[in-house]
Amino acid sequence: MSSPQSLVPSSPLSSPHSPVLSSLLSPKPPLPRLDTSDESSIQLILAHTHIRRMPESKEATTSHPVLSRPPRLSGGKITPVVLRAFEIQIENYFLNAKEAIAETDKVTRLLGCFEGPLVNQWISQNRTRLRGLTFSAFITEFRKRWLPKTWEQDFLRQIMRARLDPRRSSFEDWSTEVQIINDALTGTTSFLTEDQMRRQLESNIDEDLRWLLRKGKVNAVTDFAEWLEAVSEIDHDRQIDLQIERKQVADFIQEKTRAGTLVV
Hints:
Elements: H1 19-25, H2 39-52, E1 62-63, E2 72-73, H3 80-96, H4 106-110, H5 117-131, H6 135-146, H7 151-161, H8 171-183, H9 194-204, H10 207-215, H11 224-259
Antiparallel strand pairs: 1-2
Helix pairs in contact: 7-8
């Protein structure tokens, strides 16, 4: 009678003479080494290392330490907010340059402010045409080339949908964020004027704050900056009251929990 092991069909890999197993167990020949004394080999190594270490994606940043000199826009992803900050810095440079800069020379002066290789490639390929643009026309074309196609609609949608939640943010912080988004829309048809921005903020505050503003007759304030300050003061007092209420509730729950009388 055959043993149990003899009933198991043999596998080609189970045989010590299997060509597949022999190929797996046989020692592999060493990989050829590059001669580092050969300049072409060194270049190959550097190129291979460069390919393996691609630069990380990051947002561009802008800096302007000296007002009388052009600012710098670093390489990286260009966002509408950063581009707007860079635009303001360029305008400050034009005002503070040691020598007056003619309107026809402004774009020429700013073409050397960019550090991103792709931006510089675009400038190199379009330099003659770009130099003939006004500063505002250049900014418009720069936005069209380097910002997402729907950025303007996306930013306006953020403004329309931004609603104040007093549990998560104060009016001052919330309204500042909304105004920064709107500032990036400067020069576009989506930009909100001060009157439009006030109406938008008023429509998106919570009902409790809206009631407090009516009670404090803040709606009678016409100046936008003064209105922002008045609303912030009322909301600040409201935030203190909310903190006191939250602490009282927390103390109550803690006391009932210790006494074992908390009913959920």
